[in-house]
Amino acid sequence: MTSFGRVAARIDEARLWDRHEALARAGATARGGVDRQALSDEEIAAKRILLGWAGAAGLEAATDPIGNFFLRLPGREPALPPVLTGSHIDSQPTGGKYDGVYGVLAGLEVVEAMRAEGIRPRRTVEIVAWTNEEGSRFAPGMMGSEAFAGVRPLDAILPVADAAGVRVEAELARLFAAFPEMAVRPLGFPVAAYVEAHIEQGPELEAAGRQVGVVTGIQGKKTWKVAVHGEEAHAGTTPRRRRKDALAAAAAMIAAMHGAIVDADDVVRFTVGRIAVEPNAPSVVPATAVFSIDLRHPDGATLDRFGATVERLCADHAGPCTVAVTPLVDAAPLIFPAAMQEIVRTTAERLGLSPMALPSAAGHDARNLHIICPSGMIFVPCAGGISHNEAEATLPADLAAGARVLAEVLVQLAERA
Ligand SMILES: [Zn+2]
Questions:
Q1: Is 373 part of any domain?
Q2: What is the full DSSP assignment across 173-201?
Q3: Rounded CA gap, 395 and 382, in Å?
Q4: Which of 7, 22, 196, 9 lies closest to 104, judged by CA?
Q5: Distance CA 335, CA 343 (A)
Q6: Among 127, 122, 116, residue whose Cα is nearest residue 75
Q7: Is the domain of 403 the same as that of 319?
Q8: 337 and 318, same structural domain?
Q9: 272, 300, 331: which is the final residue of a domain?
Q10: Across 333-338, average pLDDT
């Protein structure tokens, strides 16, 4: 057994930072961010860079039928299920340099540190870059980890098309053609444990002045599509009492929900982020208004309670219009196993950091791995909590601190029988 802290001491802050900068050149935007959507040329370019580093580090690369990328450091007992770490390298169209990328590059840095220290862990350690976490090009996201964990069958994913009508299946064929030398493994395999490092994408760690977060779980999420139907009418001639104004009804619903879905501790998240009005003409009373609802909370019972108000408030404020409320996503909150939270917390403390426990407000691939193996997450701060934004920023020292925790967590997990 390697003595505690030796691998962490080999984490190279400058190399880890430089690699974020280098990978960000694949899909770099003029405003300093990244546009590297799933299965795009830009993502293929990033994977090529990644493979170059992995090859130099002596790692074995493989992919699978959904295009997940695995970089493997074989253990002393390679027949044992591996310990998996990673995240994703696809981005939103106006994404930052660290969302997802950090989890993959921190994993790579840990393996570099193990090699520098001359360690060959008992279990194989694999770094994974999951396909299409973001879901901006092919919706919904988390395709790679969902297919891997058996949450969604491959057959249901391959026909999904982007806005231009290009199917996942065609883009995967392009990906495999770009890396003809890579082994394609069957989809899914037993995993001993999964640890995902990620920037927080929220403001809590920075506000508390902490470098490392122990992620307790992932908050639950419900989404709906609400369609309000009224009647087109002349804006000049139609008196109010004769109108069936779909937008006025939608506005009343949205205002009522914003008023009702609140809590004293400011934990619930309620968002109407999209609205489409027909015919969307200045002098026509709107005939239809279709809007989205995104509701999140870390507690299942509370999420259900707020969720139950959505349909009622929409019905109550429909006025002369009709309303149809269609549930879309219903993802329950999850709590990572106590043992996984504990190993992250104690490891961070032993490294002299003062970790802070917090739930993840955003979704991550760890949600799907949680179904098939003990899973956990490590957060590091990001400036102002800003993410899914080209201005996303972090500090090299914080990325390195999280990687040190990841290193010692993986060393422990990979030595377990
Ligand atoms: Zn992410």
A1: yes
A2: HHHHHH-TTSEEPPS----SEEEEEEE-S
A3: 8
A4: 196
A5: 15
A6: 122
A7: no
A8: no
A9: 331
A10: 97
Distances (CA, A) of 161 to 120, 145, 158, 171, 261: 42, 18, 8, 10, 35
What backbone phi and psi angles, to 5 degrees, belong to 282?
-60, -30
Q: Containing domain of residue 56, as a range?
A: 6-219+333-415
224 shares a domain with 214: no
User: What is the pLDDT at residue 170?
Assistant: 98
Cα of 385 from ligand 1 centre, angstroms: 13
CA of 282 to the centre of ligand 1 (A): 40
pLDDT tens readout for residues 312-328: 999 999 999 999 999 98
**Tens-place pLDDT, residues 226-250:** 999 999 999 999 999 999 999 999 9
How far is residue 63's CA from residue 34's CA, in Å, rounded to a whole number? 24
55 residue type, one letter: G
Position 100 in a domain: yes
Ligand 1 centre to CA of 156 (Å) is 23
State the total domains in the chain.
2
Q: 86 CA distance to ligand 1 centroid (A)?
A: 10
Same domain, yes or no: 364 and 378 = yes
Determine the residue type at 344.
V
Residue 1 has pLDDT above 80, yes or no: no
Domain identity same for 190 and 313: no
- The domain boundary, picked from 301, 316, 331, lies at 331
Alpha carbon of 416 to ligand 1 centroid (Å)? 28
CATH code for the domain in which residue 324 is found: 3.30.70.360
